[in-house]
Amino acid sequence: MVYNEYKTFNLYKSPPQVLLLGNGLTRCSKSAISWQDMLESICCENIDKTDIERIKNRSVPYTIRATALSHTDDKARHEKYKNALEGIRYEESDLMKQLLAIPFDAVLTTNYTYEAEYSLLPKYPKLSNTAKLNYCYDTLKEGDRTNTKYLINIFNRLESDGTVRDIWHIHGEVRRTSSLIFTHDEYARLIERVLAYNKKRGKEYGDYKDEVHFKSWIDYFILGDLYILGQGLDYSEFDLWWLLNRRMRERNANPGKAVFYSVDDEESPVKAAVLKGLNVEHRSFQTVVKKGSSDADALYREFYLKAINDIKENVTGRH
């Protein structure tokens, strides 16, 4: 096990290789979490069922839906989060194993649960929260309550077959329910922390010398070669869109590239155009999946295999 609290990179030679992982790979397994089911499970008991049905309308961004449906009391809401997530089943995924065998310098995930950790260390999800801390690192070591809530500088480091992976849960993880980001209010509070860290980072790093200390997932997102897979980039996730815009405006180092992998659907041309304006390439391998089609699962699996191979070629070529 490597015990260094953070990594350093010479950005003039090569940016770090970074994966931004969403929940999409679970589409090919039985452990997939439905956003609809998740939102219904965190509803406040006092909300009328008729209103719940109205708010479930997909034209309402899920962050707003979560805000409108959930408890305003933090403790009650966090208890709902815990109950909604603690029953998840983990299963072995050959796609996840292939993906995490790629030598990424950091894995950023919007998942609250431990699919990535499970792939590297199957016993990890069953560990107590105290035992999980043996794999948890705080790059600041300041004991800051804000840091432990928003996990700006905290990651999990796991080793498997001699391979070490740093996994950053950028929207929180289930061992600390107060860190979970669901509602519009929680996203807003997170972006406040992101802005504060980015301002501080700019002052600390200046013009970037030979070795830059990467103390947060924000550093990896802005300065790395970023491969986005299994993540739909929903427009309501405004923290991710702000960060993509911030990446585009970075001037102090050789800019890394960003690639968004997704199948083609009716929204793809619009989203691809927006992403192009942010210097993000969209790759679909011309895979078209129609909602509810009988061959959807097979098409998604074929797409993910192509995407993983494409990422592997790109990442290994930089190391």
Task: Give a structural overview.
The longest helix is centred in the C-terminal third of the chain and has 23 residues, at 296-318. Helix 10 packs across helix 11 (238-248). The two termini are 20 Å apart. This protein folds into 2 domains: 7-29 and 92-318, no CATH class; 35-85, no CATH class. The strands form 2 sheets. Strands 4-5-6-3-2-8-9-10 form an 8-stranded mixed beta sheet, sandwiched between helices. Strands 1-7 form a two-stranded antiparallel ribbon. Helix content is 41%, strand content 14%. By secondary structure, the chain is of the alpha/beta class.
- CA radius of gyration is 19 Å
Beta content comes to 5-15%
Q: How many structural units, i.e. domains?
A: 2
Stretches where pLDDT is under 50 for at least 5 consecutive residues are none
Could you describe the largest sheet, including whether it forms a barrel?
8 strands, mixed
- What string gives the helices and strands in order? EEHHHHHEHHEHEEHEHEHEHEH
Placed side by side, the strands forming the largest sheet appear as: 4-5-6-3-2-8-9-10
Helix content: 40-55%
Number of DSSP helical runs? 13
- The geometry reads as globular
